[in-house]
Amino acid sequence: MAKAAAKKSAVAVPPAERRPALAGQELSATGVTLAVLPPAERISLRAPDASVAALSKALGVTLPRKPKTSAAKAGRTALWLGPDEWLVIDEVGKDPLADCAEVTALHSAVGISHRNVGISVTGPAAAATINSGCPQDLSLDVFPVGAASRTILGKVEIVLLRTASDAFRVECWRSFSDYVFTFLSEAARDAAA
Amino acid sequence: MIAAFRIPGAGRLKQAETTRFSFDGRSYAGVEGDTLASALLANGVHLVGRSFKYHRPRGFLSAGAEEPNALVEIKRDAARKTPNVRATVQELYDGLTAQSQNRWPSLAFDVSAVGDIASPLLSAGFYYKTFMWPKSAWKNLYEPKIRAAAGLGVAPDQPDPDHYAARFAHCDVLVLGGGAAGIAAALAAAETGVRVILADEQADFGGSLHFESGAKVDGQDGFAWAQGAVATLKAMDNVRVLSRTTAFGYYAQNFVGLVERVSDHLPNPDRELPRERLWQVRARRVVLATGAIERHMVFADNDRPGIMLASAARTYLNHYGVAVGRNVGVYTANDSAYAAAIDLKKAGVGVAAIVDLRDNPTGPVIDEARALGIEVNFGRAVIRAGGKLRVSSMTVQPKNGGGERTIPVDAILMSAGWTPSVHLFSQSRGKVVFNDETKRFVPGIYAQDCVSVGACNGTDGLSATIDEAYAAGAKAAKDAGANTVKGTKPKVDASESWSRGMLGAAPGAGPDTTVKAFVDFQNDVTAKDIRQAVHEGMRSIEHVKRFTTNGMATDQGKTSNMHGLAIAAETLGKPIPQVGLTTFRAPYTPVTFGSIVGHARGKLFDPTRKTAIHPWAEAQGAVFEDVGQWKRAWYFPKPGEDMHAAVDRECVTVRKTAGLFDASTLGKIEVVGPDAAKFMELLYTNPWEKLEPGRCRYGIMLREDGFIYDDGVVGRLAPDRFHVTTTTGGAPRVMNHMEDYLQTEFPHLNVWLTSITEQWAVIAVQGPKSREIIAPLVEGIDMSDEALPHMSVREGRICGVPARLFRMSFTGERGFEVNVPADYGEAVWEALWAEGQKHGACAYGTEAMHVLRAEKGYIIVGQDTDGTVTPGDAGLDWAVGKKKTDFVGIRGMARPDLVAKGRKQLVGLKTKDPKVVLEEGAQIVGDPKQAIPMTMIGHVTSSYWSENCGRSIALALVAGGRDRMGETLYVPMPNGTIEVEVTGMVFFDEKGERLNG
Amino acid sequence: MLLIRCPYCEEERPELEFRNAGEAHIARSPNIAGESDDDFEKFFFIRSNPKGIIYERWRHMHGCARFFNAVRDTVSDRFLMTYKAGEPKPTKLPGAAK
Fold it and tell me: Is the ipTM above a cut-off of 0.85?
């Protein structure tokens, strides 16, 4: 075996190009616009109650404790997904995984930046578009701005975050993004009704 | 020119005949707002169909959704063809093309009407009796004949080109039915500010106000009031008003399915519009305002075209401006038919006579009829209708017998009374009670948060209806959380009111007769059939229904159920409540498959999952196979290669130089926490505590029953962090299985699971040249055998991006699996591919992967195992930690049957003729000469041509397999028996030297 | 489609988000390897399948992902209550006849 080749570390490999799923896809329909969001840093954060304060401090955003809520600060959003589970999304290029690495309190932080694809759904018919496949009540009383939940869209799982009264962020796994975008596109055609 | 039966000035439509349509190839004119029924009637057409069983000529019974007879096919083009459309609800549009059904060669002359003559053979329960003998005739004779003759309409044979929308909706108060009651309830609820949805199946709101000429509300004609009120509701932000929308099903916890017909009424629908929209509504409170349906009179030949419900004739006149005849007879057992006679008479239509079964009824409508000069007969029955393709007369007789008198008529309007529409209430699991005085079932015990108002609740008269509905609407809103109540109740200035009537067969169709007095028009069930069912031993109404098929047609017995029940009760000599009412089931009216399917068709039928590397493989001309929802590259044919040639080349190349394989679909779970190793110990058979960080182990996961559930290579990244891989198909269920144990059996463990299947793209580089291919792209990882031995893992960088590099092999060759974040997957693959090209490497697909692993005897869970295979059966005892005291499956594995001798064990098979490739799934026997059925001792689980071995290879589960090494067994196949030899499972490089080769 | 109250999300959510996970309160022995065949049979194979009140496990699969317990009437399909995994079997049921 060519042992020399094996040991020699590579020189000047051009870095691999990032090719996000559905990059840049958009769709406009009456009352609603869909857009695949640019890549973001994401972690799945798991921790017991006792660690929440330390993790909040390290992340710079207070991890929400109340079901179906989120908290956001400086381009970073923490979504309550379960009693010991948060999805942290950083849209300004800072790495929450690195921030958590400093924390000694009990937790699990796993990088999932590439696992998810974000799609924005905006416009007066945004809720109707999502309700084509999502069985939750998306009225502002029940699903207010900032509300976040893992749920269903058609035949797949999504995470839904309401970013404004007429805007949502839909997160899904990478290989489901084509299905989700197609579903939302078809739903959007009918959402103004 | 105006159609012959359109009465100038009558009705609410603009009588300009601008709408052309055709029926059975003949062209007609209608007016905007017509239904197909009203337009045909305006043209004097009554004969529109043939009945299901006897092929008797049929016309329109009703003017609404309850129609059992007037079913037609509406055809827009070859693919847009809808059978069994009720002409009474199909709105007319310009260019509409309709055809009658169930007739051959023509509607007026149908040879199958012999069924009418041969009807003694087709009596109740005939399916169960007539075709029982001889047995052999069923398949060859009876069934094909019945299938050809039976059925309602013809299903379209092309894919449905329309699309269907779907919506989940939530509201505080859902009002079902948009007549006076529904509108009043919706107004009351809406005025409080709560979220209200009001739905009605018709194009226009108003319900019975369509025909009730005597109704006045808030100083206006009732129908006009309804339109104004609905306009008010539509303008409110908190209200959604849905017309052409049928509530077809009422499910648990106030979950109601509605179908909105969006474009079936449009002449040239915008193809962007869905054909229908399914609303799945969750309501805090439901108000049922579904009205009542008029019943027909059950007398001989009551199905002749021209015989219809009195309220239908009134609707055609008062709403559509159409007279259903020139000289009509009326047959009734209650007051409401008088109103029809009065309206028609006032409109200039001749009313030959009113025949009233009651002895001495009194009331204002009777006085008014008389004052208009209409002949009114009490205590008399219509015992027979004359005419065939159209009614021509009615024969009247005193109800207790006596002289007959035949009166020529061209239509008969009938009313036996009104049946409250309790369908949705009953679907909600509410229990109805029988009111003996009014002879009707009304809502009794409620099972859900709903309330019935108006006619469906047995409330008679507009004034009482609006009082009740308005109060109920306000209360529903309050119960749903409203606190402000404002607004004013609509004021009823004039109203109509009637109740009572009769149930069952009318005189002349009694037990001593053999006449065809129809109870259920759509399924051709007569009063005699019901009695016969009872005579033949049916006691429960559920049995009578099934034996006679009464109420089982697409109209679900809207007009027939109560009559059928009354006749059964009378025959049984029991009161009606004791015989019981059959259960109402969804859908209320037929629902298209399209609306149920909604978006879930074509690309959205099921998600198609593709890896990050998929586009590259596609560009290379890969052939893909479906693995669960994933598309996986199956093989990469070069020009001129078939699958066999491509797979052979890929297999040989991997072992000669190297191959690249997209393994991204493998399930991946990151197990993190101080108790991660403890958790792994419990979930896998293997020991994990002592696995050094940086090393990997092949793990087996069992279910509690001791059978293999999944397998995969697990790398320990750090003391508290494992990177677990699962099979592609098993990923979701393995995650669920692990979460289940973690959350419910081992919640004390500090460990968390995260799916990282899609975080990482995985590129397997396998073969003697694999290290040379990868090494130039790697930073920060020493790839020497000493630093990175087989079954180890390192984190570093490849192509400048973060990577988890596994040294592992599913081919038996030196091998690596490169994990990079998914968005980099394709670019890293391209870089590895470029390196690979320097060494003559190939891309290989799942088929070559399967062959290569089989050459090494590596199993695939789900192919070589089937949920009944233990680690011992699979020859994997070595992977079970012998010193462990607990793991999932430890006890199940020790069950007597699972450790008994003679279990099926995985072994290799070599065919005596090396060129013969066995079929996967083929059964194995020990003695090929034994009598059939043979004792099967096992089956082939994997079988391939192995170019590397120069022969076929196979794996099989064989009883006592490992004790049969060298034995000859037999695989009987249709073309002869194949001889095989039992061997070990490793066919290539038995010593495993190539892992470091 | 039922509405099911998730004790972790503290609200009723559509059934589509949930998955049934069989009968509840069947504890896995900490010494499972030492169990007799009879005890293992009872633990693994035997379920009550009652007509009426059943205690069962559900997972809020597409929600908070937690397993929890529910009391449901198999006749009416009505949920009487739900409670968190690990909490004791309730002795009093709201709204149940007796």
Answer: yes
